[in-house]
Amino acid sequence: MFLALGPGQAQQFTPQVQEFIAVNAPSVALTDAKVIDGTGRPALLHQTVLLQNGRITQVGPVKKVKVPAGAQVINCAGKTLIPGFVMLHEHLYYTMPAGPFFNIAQMPYSFPRLYLAGGVTTIRTAGSIEPQTDLAIKRLVGEGKLIGPDMDVTAPYIEEPSMDIPALNTVKGPEDAAATTRFWADKGCTSFKMYMHATRADLAAVVREAHPRNLKITGHLCSITYREAAEIGIDNLEHGFMASADFVANKVADACEPNVRQSLLRLPQNSPEMKSLINFLVSKKVALTSTLPVFEPYTDREVVLGGGLEALIPQLQEREMATWKQNQRKDTASLRLFKKEMAWEKQFYEAGGLLVSGTDPTGAGRTVAGYANRRQLELLVEAGFTPVQAIKISTLNGAIYLGREKQIGTIEAGKQADLVLINGDLEKDIRQVRQMEIVFKNGVGFDSAKILESVKGKVGLN
Q: Domain of life of the organism in this record (predicted)?
C-alpha cells in the first residue's frame, strides 16, 4: 500500500491507483502559474500555490511566497491553475438501448476515472439507476481503491409509471415517494430527483421528508412547472429552462404536455414572461443547472463532445458516427433553441441566480463523462460568459449549492487542495482546457492523460 496524506488523515491507495498518481508529497509548491481561483476575481499571473498535507496553505506572487525546504516543486510557467470542477448533473451510467427501448447502463469503472481525468473532483449524481453501486463507488474511491471524484449520491428517480425505460425507478403516489425518500436517505443518499411525470403531491411529500434532514431536491420536470416547483420548495432545477413547462398554453395540472419544446421555440428570447419566471426563481433561491453538452446540436460540431470518441467501444463509435452523419443540416430548430437556452441561462445569472454546471451523460450518447465536463466550460464561454465566470459557475457555485464552499470550489488558503493544472492560457483560448496535465484531489496529483489512455475503448463495457 502507498501512503498519501489527506486533510486530517492518512489516505492509502492500492497499487492499481498508485500507477496513475503523478504527484504525492506532503509538501508541494506550484510555482509561476497563472491562477484563476474560482472566486470570480480576475486571474493572477506569476503565482505560487503551496500545498501541505492535502490543503492549500498559501497563494501569492512568486517573489513573496517562500517555498518550504523539502517541498516538491512544479514549475507552472505558461500554465493555468483552476479549482477542481464541482459539477452537479453527473451520472455513472451511459445510454445503452435495450432492444427497441431507450435505456441506460452503469459504467462503474470507466466513468469515475473519466470524471477525475476531466478535472472533476466533486460530483453530484443527479439521479441513480443503481444507487447501491453509486454508494459503493463513493466508498471505494474514498478508500483509495478506485480512481474518481468525491461524490454526493442522489437516490433513484422519483417518477410515476409512464415511460418504458427498463432501468428507471418509479413510485405510485406521494406515500410511496415519501417512503422511497426515507429509505434512500437512511442508506446514505444526499439528494433526490423528481422526474418528468412526478406530481405536485409527490414533490410536496419528498420535500416534507428531505428538508428536515437537510437534504435537497432537484428535478427534471415536465408535469410540474418551474413556478409550481419553486412554490412547493424544490432546491434546484435541471437542464436550464429546457424542461420548463411554464409557457405551455392551457397546461393541464400534473400532466406532462407533449409541446414543451414548441412552447419554448415560440417564446421570444427576451420575453417578459421569462424575465418574470427568472425573478421568481431567484427570489425563491432555486439553483439552476446548466447542462449545455447534452443539448448541443450536431451540425458542424463534434461527434462526441470534448473529443471523447475513442473512449467508446468500437460498436458505439460506429453508432455515434452514424447518428452524427444522419443529423447534419437537420437540426436548425435545435440550434435556435440551444442559442435561446444559452441566453436564458445568462439572464438568470445576471439576475443574481445561482447557476451551476453539469453535463448529463445520457441523451443520444454523445455526452461522455470527463470529456463533456471540459466541453461544458467551452460552451459557457460560447454563451457569452467570460472564462473567469465559466470557471466560477463550474467550481465555487457548485460548492455553494452543496454547502461545501468553505472546503472546496476555490484556490484559497485553508481549502482542500482540489485543483487542475492546464498547459495553456484559458483566457486566450478556452479550448486549452482540454490540455489538462495534473488533477489534484486532496493534494494528490493524478496524471490526466494517463487515466484517459487507460479508459480508451472501455465506455460501453463497464
A: Bacteria
Please indicate, yes or no, if residue 461 is contained in any of the structural domains: no
**Cut 0.85: pTM above it:** yes
Q: What is the pLDDT of residues 120-151, one digit of tens each?
A: 999 999 999 999 999 999 999 999 999 999 99
What is the average pLDDT score of the chain? 96
Residues 383 and 418 in one domain: no
Total domains present in the chain: 2
Kindly state whether residues 437 and 307 are assigned to the same domain: no
- At 9 the pLDDT is 52
| pLDDT score for 347 | 98
Establish if 242 belongs to a structural domain.
Answer: yes
